[in-house]
Design goal:
2 domains, about 375 residues, globular, eight-stranded parallel β-sheet, binds N-(iminomethyl)-L-glutamic acid, HutI
Length: about 375
């Protein structure tokens, strides 16, 4: 069945030819966009929805979350707000709770958060393993994630489990663990940071994953400068995520590479780190994505609108750059061409704002502006 969405006051397509249109319309046919253009020349459809002058944009593409988890870290958050620094060690708390949880509890928690994200306009979401850290627990996390999320990443190399020897654990990740998850994930990631995995260990994990045909992503430069960005670029990773502390050489490397710099402003705020240097990256010519990093420790939010508002208000991104980074940028970080864009043939992932323009996302920060959402042509909100 074809649906004509008309009365669009401002249509952000992210398509270089279509650009941003006023007085526009869209036709969705099944799970795909069939037509986009001026309302005056829109074709007929079976159903008509008039959005009465509101802004329409592609659904958010949240390319970085950690939502296969159980438990709660409110106490750690409170301690941080009282002045304790964020360290990777808190991950172990969630690992304990996740191992204790049943499959049903993990799946229900994941669905609850993905639903929460969808009601705020997120229509394509990546999530990771990484709170299991045994072969069996990582394999079940990958399986559960695959039942719910659009994209699944193996993050067995999130933390060396307490009590384990780092080199032996990396052997396990590169061997038995990778074998157990390879069939259910598209991506592999490593937390390349002091307190997690060093450069040599990270390179071992990434090369083993690439050898099994997985695409690469890296958590890098979150808590200080380090080798994460360089390694990601050298190994052709699709994305290096966090990028909070960057040397000039890191910025230059990203500007010259296909690797997307995925910035996670909600995490920087929640861990009281400086905000990632978006302007330096953009001015140098790097490709920037914005993602929520939704997880129970360092960034417990699914709000991409919050990330966009922060990027504009505090990181000096323009509204156009921030909206692009949270839609097309996320798609690029996931190497997808069917999402983050509204053009004929794209997935019908449509976000209607209760506002006349995307500028209101930063102009009215914190206000729930999502009016309606279609995901793959199915109305999931509004
Ligand atoms: O992206 N950096 C490592 N992993 C997560 C944190 C997860 C946690 O604290 O539970 C992150 O911030």
């Amino acid at each position: 069945m074809a649906v004509l969405i008309t009365g669009i006051g401002e249509l952000t397509t992210n398509d270089p030819e279509l650009g941003r249109l006023t007085e526009a319309a869209l036709v969705l046919d099944g799970s795909r966009v069939a037509w986009a253009g001026p309302a005056a020349s829109a074709p007929d459809a079976d159903e008509r929805v008039d959005v009465e002058g509101r802004a329409v944009l592609p659904g958010w593409v949240d390319s970085h979350t950690h939502l296969v988890f159980a438990g709660d870290r409110t106490a750690e958050f409170e301690a941080r707000m009282a002045g304790k620094p964020y360290t990777a060690g808190g991950i172990a708390t969630t690992v304990g709770a996740t191992r204790e949880a049943s499959d049903e509890q993990l799946a229900a928690n994941l669905r609850r958060h993905v639903g929460e994200a969808a009601r705020q306009g997120t229509t394509c979401l990546e999530t990771k393993t990484g709170y299991g850290l045994t072969v069996a627990d990582e394999a079940r996390s990958a399986r559960i994630a695959g039942e719910v999320a659009d994209e699944v990443t193996f993050l067995g190399a999130h933390l060396v489990p307490p009590g384990a020897d780092a080199e032996s654990y990396v052997d396990l990740v590169c061997g038995e663990m990778l074998d157990a998850v390879a069939g259910s994930v598209r991506w592999a990631d490593v937390f390349c940071e002091t307190g997690a995995f060093d450069e040599a260990q990270s390179a071992r994990v990434l090369k083993a994953a690439a050898g099994r045909g997985l695409g690469l992503r890296v958590h890098g430069n979150q808590l200080g400068e380090g080798p994460g960005v360089r390694l990601a670029v050298e190994l052709g990773a699709a994305s290096v995520d966090h990028c909070t502390y960057l040397s000039d050489a890191d910025v230059e490397a990203l500007a010259a590479a296909e690797t997307v710099a995925t910035l996670l402003p909600a995490c920087d705020l929640s861990t009281r780190q400086p905000l990632a240097p978006a302007r330096r990256l953009l001015d140098a010519g790097a490709t920037v994505a914005l993602a929520s990093n939704a997880n129970p420790g360092s960034s417990y939010t699914t709000s991409m609108a919050f990330c966009v508002a922060t990027a504009v208000l505090q990181m000096r991104m323009t509204i156009e750059e921030a909206v692009w980074a949270a839609t097309a940028g996320g798609a690029k970080a996931l190497r997808r061409t069917d999402v983050g864009v509204l053009r004929p043939g794209a997935r019908a992932d449509v976000h209607v704002l209760d506002a006349p323009s995307v500028t209101h996302l930063a102009y009215r920060p914190g206000v729930p502006l999502t009016r309606a959402v279609w995901r793959a042509g199915v109305r999931v909100a509004g």
